[in-house]
Give the backbone structure.
Amino acid sequence: MTAIILSLLSAALYGVGDFWGALASRRSHIMQVLPAILISGTLSVYVLIPFLGADFTPDAIKYGIASGFFGAAGFFVFYRALAIGPMGIASAIIAIISTTIMYVVDVLKGTHVSTLGIVGAVLAMLSIVLVSKSTEDATHPVTAKMVRMAVLSGVVVSGFFMLLAYAPSDVGVATFASTRTTQLILILSAAFLVRKKIVRGAKPDIRMSIGAGVADALAAVAFIYANHTGSLAFVAVISNLYPAVTLIVAHFVIHERVERHQYVGMAGAVTAVALLTLA
């Protein structure tokens, strides 16, 4: 039950964070937005250390640095994909690619998956497609570049999460603190190197960027602790239902219309969680 709650919490936080981050990325250049997201996210992790502990062992640091490289690349291609194409479709491609890779790898590593679990996983992926499909975002059409960025993001994001999931589980948030520190150094270095080439957009929305960073960091912490009590195959599927949360937030905040098939997708997501809970 703990794994379910933490996985759902992770999905909720990722959904909110991705909504804020994507909106900020559409208004300003991605390299104007990422530093604020990562600074706020990194500080959030270090604030948690007195409560969750952190044992910076060599393995924790090693996994953290490795996932940090994946995460830095993932941040860039993820928000770039969401900024240049329909937010829902990009989110769906990223979620399905990353979920499938993590699910297959965990099963190949020996995790037993019941028939009910397989049905729940497939239903969850179909639900992501339904929830994310929109006919309204004509201002950001689907392009080959967006699809390539989304697929690449899904692959990179799966590597990021697998390194966090398979890292030592008795080190508190040390691994993730190392991850965020590595990401921050890499992104700030990249932003400095390309500062003169950046085509400045509107002034970055700092509050939105900070909110995205905090939500993203807390979502990752919830994901890590969910893996301590459940399998990656299980946690990956539930936590990647975040596009449904993004849709709900977009509906209430910027009044995006929820279409009939998206309601079906949300119902499917709830059913998928129930099946995975019983598996």
About this structure: Residues 2-278 form one domain.
